[in-house]
Records
---
Amino acid sequence: KLRVVDGDLGVQRDLERAFGKHKVDAVIHFAAIAYVGESVAQPLAYYRNVTVNTIGLLEAMRRHDVRKLVYSSTCATYGNPDELPITEKTPTVPINPYGKSKLYAEDAIRDYAVANKDFDAAILRYFNVFGSDPRGRLGEFPRPELRAMGRISGACFDAALGNIPELVVMGTDFPTRDGTCIRDYVHVTDLVDAHLAVLGHVANPPVLYNVGTGKGVTVREFVDACKRVTGVDVTVREQRESRPGDYAEVYADVSKIREELGWEARYVDLEESLGHA
């Protein structure tokens, strides 16, 4: 039976309400803000919301003797990699506060695991999540003030629906095949399946997996696909300047999670996945 506790991860009283009345076997920690541009403008908010709140969650887990954690991290921990595709051994050199705050949270989890040998965890580094439930039960609806932060999937649909007058492509001079940045777009339903796959394989030291498709798509290619799916020839304005803290190209090597857990993305057709949204 689903039990919902409406609260704030940063408020200890709310954590106690979540943990206090029922036995908790494991925690899957999704709760965090996740906009690169916003993190550059408001870095302290990200260190508090992402890093500090994760530490508070670990403390609550210790108080209630909960010893299993799956943590939602990000490919932003890698920054601008020297080699592609990105493996779990790629050096972590984040270039924005969002990526840094996630990496610091990862470090806190690893250090906690060193000090507590009966604590098991898994860290999943997502690539660019998009899409909605294929059956239409849930979808993405960001706060309106975050629309300007440049998440391309939401911006494409806002333009197609007439919520904004034009779609702005930010950054056209990256060293990529068409000048726009390249991302690995992973469907949200595939992401759910990855969490279910890893939950039975948490370990100490914490295991680490990339979660993506292994395929890079440029922003221009994404926009063209969105136009075809919606049937709307949206007005596109390109600006040379990229979002603050952005990086040129990232896509995953997902061989580790495929070989060890048997997981791989099912929704790899970009237009099909956009159709779900």
---
Amino acid sequence: AKGSPSTLWRVNFLVSGLSALCLRGCGSMSSTQQKIADLEAEYARTQKNKATAGHLGLIKAKLAKLKRELLEPERSGGSQGGGSGFDVSKAGDTRVGLVGFPSVGKSTLMSALTGTFSEAAAYEFTTLTAIPGTLHYRGAKIQILDLPGIIEGARDGKGRGRQVIGTARTCNLILIVLDAAKPMSHKLKIEHELDGFGIRLNQTPPDITFKLKDRGGLGYTELVPQTQGMNRDVARQVLQEYRVQGDVLMRGDYTVDQFIDVVESTMAPKRARKYIPAIYCLNMIDQLTIEDLDIICQMPHHCPISSRHHWNLDGLVEMVWDYCSMIRIYTKPKGQIPDLTAPVVLHNRSPTVASFCNRIHRGILSEFKYAWVWGRSVKHQPQRVGKDHVLQDEDVVQIVKK
């Protein structure tokens, strides 16, 4: 049926309006990416010396702001955009994510470690969503996520890359699965994509204190000499780019990028940098020679495996345990023997008696009086301790309430 002229006019008006909005959004995105490309080109052709340190720091600050603008539109809408990750609830004591390019054996490795079926085939992009599985090791339950393969440009949203990397940000450990027979440049590409989304692999947070203030200019203090490009002038230019002022305390020798990470985390806490340990799983070593294995063994944080033949999977699981820094604490009810079948798993970053109580139930700490501890963390067996006592692996704890 033919519509009336007024109806056709309304339809044409709506279509043209939607087209203009789409073009405007695409144009702003492309203009931001063009600015990033121009700044990266300017940084590449600028000489690196003490005279240009301030200018280089200013370029890096502008790059960090523009890269954040690329991510913000995805998160400003009501649906959280493509950077919110897959809807997979956390389970177990820790979470490990499998990240890598398509067809490198992630699904086969997932099935070999957990027994969970994850479809594996000879074609790419077999896995289209996050598939969870559970690995039981030393009494701990380790949740492993088989994430879809990422491609170059994943941090810009290509191939659902932001969902994949957004889920990887929630993991305690990332297993980067690589095809050992392919060039090691794939490792650098994946690191580049994760770095662009604020994930810092195998790094510790810089010990830099930055406090915002309304007036008074820049307060800059160095406790150790800076040999990697940071100084008062660089800090001033970076903060001028962000249009803020504050006090900066450098407790270590750090780069301009690390200082910008601290400023970015202060300005946008929701987009704070994530410092996550990573293991590079060099899969399909059955296709390599002994000479090739000797070469790739020089790579740090690596583990050669063959998921198809189940080669060295025990060594990989042991590395996962060490990199997650987990310890086992056993409970002992009053008047009974310790329960050695179901340990309470804590992360080694803060293994205190208080964190042990909160891991069991958050209401225990309010009724806590003291605790008896057996194990390597005490001199006497048992020993009475308080809630700030630091525990060690395989300690036995008995809680005494008020």
---
Amino acid sequence: SSSSSSSSGGEETKYSLRDEKETKERTISATTKNMKTGVLNRVPNVAQSKDILLSGLKRSSRITHTSGLRVPLLKERNKSAKQLDGLTTALCKPLGEYVKGFPKIDRLHPFEKALLELTVDPETYAKTISEVDQARKSMLTMGKEYSSRAKNGKTEKETKAVREEGFKNMEARFVKSQAKFEKLKEMAKKLRRLPVAELETPTVAMVGAPNVGKSSLVRSVSSGVPEVNNYPFTTRGVIMGHFFIEDRRHVVTDTPGLIFRVDEERNKIERLAIATLEHLPVCAVFVTDLSGLSGTSVEDQLALREELRERFASRRPWLDVLSKCELVPALGGKLDESLESTWTEKDAKSTEAAAKMLKESGAMVTSVVDGVGISELKAVLEDEQLYDSILELKRSRFRSDNEDDDEEQR
């Protein structure tokens, strides 16, 4: 009887945990579904702090008393209070709008959150916004206090003195915080320059080690001249092309070259490539160069491929491509002359083994120079069935990714 009760309790716990997980997945999916990219690109265009100050001083000093007042003291009280209120509004209102215009980090799409971390340290981002808001609140309090004193001035002279003192101290308080406002301005300039990921456009991402021919392949399969996307945290542009399937636009992009190492040791441009695979609904095309000219050994390229396959192939459409076949003897090409004196038998054997393994895994053999395999690659990329799984990814909104994020937040 006790064992039966224990078994029943275990079943109830199992179903309870499963129901809890399914509820959590639905919640995560619904939350991420409403997330859009381009939020960082639309942060406020922050004006120069000196322009805000000069404009505020000029406009508020022109304010006059309310018509109909005849008593000199009442005129001065009214004018001084209105001018102080006007200056307070002129200085504080734009700062308040700026603060509201910067999104909270936890409300960003995962890819834009990754871009933020690469562009501006999240702690610096939050601290800069908070400091500007604190300065705004401090000036708001000061302005209200001086306005209240002006409304209750006992004489015209005293009221005028309160107004002049208020203007002087409000200006000094603003100037003291100018460095914070300029920091916010520079941060906004960087974020507004970020390219916007196209979540609704089927996308192919060329990935691999540096100098393996990703950019050349992007140009070869693109219709027209590819664009170059620039990011504020690197001088290297990311080439982005497109092609059409029955008038529907598809994006094909290269990604920054990756070195086989742990994420913590990767630089910002490498982490952009990882973020693309991690958070965007892309088809991953891994490009391997066996010519010996890329600067990355065959062993390291295969190790990188294995790492990325383990992390992403189960969640993304995956395609292998061998590039520069005209320079790879194992693929029917001729070794580059610059390598003839240093190419060893070991190099030849490792290249042959890699070529055999990749071809048996379904890798496509290409040469941009000779045009080998390019039309076949385009045919594969233009097959709509390849993007069916991308659409499924968009529907699920990367539940597993967001579960990890949710766990970290908890």
